[in-house]
Amino acid sequence: MSQLEKLRALLAAVTPGNRFQTARLAAAGVDAVVKSLAEFSARMPFTTKADLVADQAAHPPYGSNLTHPVEHYSRFCQTSGTTARPLVIIDTAESWDWMLGNWAHIYRAAGLAAGDRIYFAFSFGPFLGFWTAFEAAARLGFLCLPGGGLGSAARLRAMIEQRATVLCCTPTYALHLAEVAVAERIDLGAAAVRKIIVAGEPGGSVPEVRARIGAAWPGARVIDHYGMTEVGPVAFQGADAEGVLRVIEESYFAEVIEPQSGAAVAPGEVGELVLTTLGRTACPLLRYRTGDLVRRRASEPGFALEGGIIGRADDMVVVRGVNFFPNAVDAVVRSVPEITEYRVEVSRRGALTEVTVQIESADAASVEKLAHALTSAFALRIPVVRVAANSLPRFEMKARRWVSIES
């Protein structure tokens, strides 16, 4: 089926049972006989996380974006709540299976084969990515090794003892595990890990971060992917191009818009990713603004994202007229191998915004190295401060290295 055919089937399935979507579709004059994807984009308004949070507040606890009675739903997840109150998502068995199928794309593209053993180095909280990744791998016949409840050193030892060949975690946690290995005198050269599948942060498609992880884990290839609790597993890294994520187009209708105006941007330009879930009928999202900035490749067919997820639309900080995105700073910091961890403090004095980078490093010369690298990258002098070892926080899930301080 084409994307348009799948969209029509989705619209027919969600009306009239889904009160949230039925009301929005009627207001936009969109129905299951929509003539084209272009017409759908022109007529259908965006959906935002704020819309969904407000709906759940008005219709607790699950909101009205439900196509079936609650008794038909069997899975519960929620978002991390980094930009708003946590958003609760429930799924039917059918929609859950659809997401497991999307994970199968990710694993196949990563080149996993019979006999691979996958170590899941995270605690199994209420976040969709953990559960779908694990269940999809088990369904595909891989030996799945859960690391929930264990400390980092215990996870490392379990990976080595169980001969795990694949590691699933965030980019930050892959680096933290390597740091723990040094502290605990655990030889990562003895590990069988040959592929590290990362997500949750933009770092998996940042060359400097990939190189840093690769250097820390001998012989391991870093493989990025992208998804959200709201929409499910969305994009995978193909074997032909590192630093490029490909949207699963049979499952998602994707668009890229200018964040302020909402107008479509041309391939090659940076914009915000907008997604319509074509198979998650239990709790569908139509033209959902992800808040993630991407650049669609202009040189090829299909929906390929150059550089993966570039950053968050609401994360940009302007310092003396220069735009800073966390992943751009991360790339510069990771180019200085002596730095083990860092944090960026953002202070505002009236209309002025300033940033200071704190680093942990055994080498005092790292301060000047990073300051020079930041100046070269951004044409600004950014203060760099060396702090005591292990004084900065470590992260198992999404890293939150940018903090605002009172000035």
Structure characterization notes:
It is a single chain. This protein has 407 residues and is an alpha/beta fold. The chain folds into three domains: 175 residues, ANL, N-terminal domain (Rossmann fold), CATH 3.40.50.12780; 108 residues, Rossmann fold (3-Layer(aba) Sandwich); 83 residues, 2-Layer Sandwich (GMP Synthetase, Chain A, domain 3), CATH 3.30.300. The chain contains eleven helices and 20 strands. It has an eight-stranded mixed beta sheet with strand order 4-3-5-6-7-8-9-13. A four-stranded antiparallel beta sheet has the order 10-11-12-14, with no helix packed on it. Helix 5 crosses helix 6, helix 8 runs parallel beside helix 9 and helix 9 packs across helix 10. It is globular. The chain starts with a helix and ends with a strand. The model has no long low-confidence stretch (mean pLDDT 92).
Strand count, sense and barrel status of the largest sheet are: 8 strands, mixed
What is the CATH homologous superfamily assignment of the largest domain?
ANL, N-terminal domain
Number of strands: 20
Q: How many domains make up the 3D coordinates?
A: 3
- Percent helix: 25-40%
What is the name of the CATH topology of the largest domain?
Rossmann fold
What is the alpha-carbon Rg in Å?
Answer: 22 Å
Q: Structural class of the secondary structure composition? A: alpha/beta
